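User: structure tokens for this one?
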Amino acid sequence: MAERNQRRSVSLADVAREAGVSAQTVSRVVHGSSAVQPRTAERVREAMERLGYRPSFAARSLRAGRYRAVGLAMFSGITGTANMYRLDGIARAATEAGHVLTLVELGSEKRPTLSGAAEAMGALPVDGLIFNLTRRVADFEAYRAPAGLPTVIVTPFAHPTCPTVGNDERGCSRTVVGRLLALGHETVFHVAGASGSVAADERLEGWREALGEEGVDVPEAIRGDWTGASGYEAGSRLAREPGCTAVYVSNDAMALGVVEALRDAGRRVPEDVSVVGVDDSLSQVLPHDAIASVRFDNRAVGRRAFERVVAGAFDGEPEHVLVPGTLIERASIAPPS
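Assistant:
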């Protein structure tokens, strides 16, 4: 019997012969029909186990008219804080709904496009697509979902035809700037994330808009690359700015670097300089996280994207949802001394 399993996959007919029943009876057991006597059903299941029979996924999908699978294209690596939580939210929602995920990572491609990702994933057994769009793509406005393959895009930008859901990145900046100005700081300096990142660029623009609307000076932003080392370099520069009493940093890793550099330069946090980060990730790695941060519920973003894509066809104006962040105040902010 083992030699037969090595030569070819076990068929429904093989199980029927092994159990001494008809192929139709085996099919009924596979699909959970109550029309089969319990003893017979148990004999069929034992035969399946002995032979190593696995019901055909493709055949079941054809009968049901869907695969119960969603394609997920990650337009950057999955190890970033936001991406990991979004993936977790999508995966949990899929498991609860009895679906599976087909994951494709496009981080190694220099210029990925939505249409290219859809073409690659459209050939796979999926019922819909989720694009986790962390950077700009050339065909964003022009993209149209393939017929019969609903698409949801995770992005802070509205799309002409596809539903979108994302973090309110500009709103995050407005919240931070508003709070620091309310504490009495004359302006807020900014350490931006990597150039080309949708989140970094939107937070940068939101910061500029918020300061401009308040009629205060807009300092020159400093670009980092999301790492603590780039934050330390930025903090060293800011320590030499006599008018710098508040810094808004585009993620917590850089914010930690900024704080360390300021303290090494003799500037106290928060007595001399207040610092706020984004993503609220340090509490997972630091025993005493003292850096104020904006927390986004990226699991909720992922879950909403999954639920929307499995809902099926989209009619009318595409839904655009921005999920706000929450400012978690800690010991790194205070009124200027």
